[in-house]
Every structure is written in C-alpha cells, then in structure tokens.
Specification:
Strand content: under 5%
Number of strands: 0
Number of helices: 3
Helix content: over 70%
Distance between the termini: 16 Å
Length: about 80
C-alpha cells in the first residue's frame, strides 16, 4: 500500500482527492486480485459465477476498503 500511496501522493491534486483516488484504486486492485485468484484456483473448484462475486467482493471490501482506511488513519499525509 505504501508504494501506491507514494505514487498517488506525487499527483498534483488536493489531499481529499488523493485519499479518494487511493481508496478507489486499492479497492479495484484487490478486486482484480480476487478475480485472478478465482480464475486460477476457484474456477475448477467452484465454477459458478456467484462464487466469482464472492472472490471479487470480499478482498475488495475487507482488504481494499477497510485495510486502506486503517492505513490512512495510521499515516499522516500532505
């Protein structure tokens, strides 16, 4: 997360917009990781697309959103 925040922090935009951009990008990245995990592992075990939604949604919500919020609370950014 730190490497992504460093890249976002280099942007010439307001602090609030940096935080929004960081949160959205982390959610999308973790959703993508969950989708790739389903393609590699879960597609053979759980072939239904409802499981794909679970594989995408849970990492996006818990790791992407909540993890990023906790990360932002623990760091002071300009």
């Amino acid at each position: 997360m730190k490497k992504i925040w460093v890249k976002v922090n280099e942007l010439n935009i307001k602090k609030e917009n940096k935080i929004r951009f960081f949160l959205i990008s982390m959610i999308l990245i973790w959703m993508l990781i969950g989708g790739i995990a389903w393609l590699l592992v879960g597609k053979n075990i759980w072939p239904s697309y409802s499981e794909l939604l679970v594989f995408i949604g849970l990492p996006g919500a818990f790791i992407g959103l909540y993890g990023s919020i906790i990360y932002l609370y623990n760091h002071d950014f300009a």
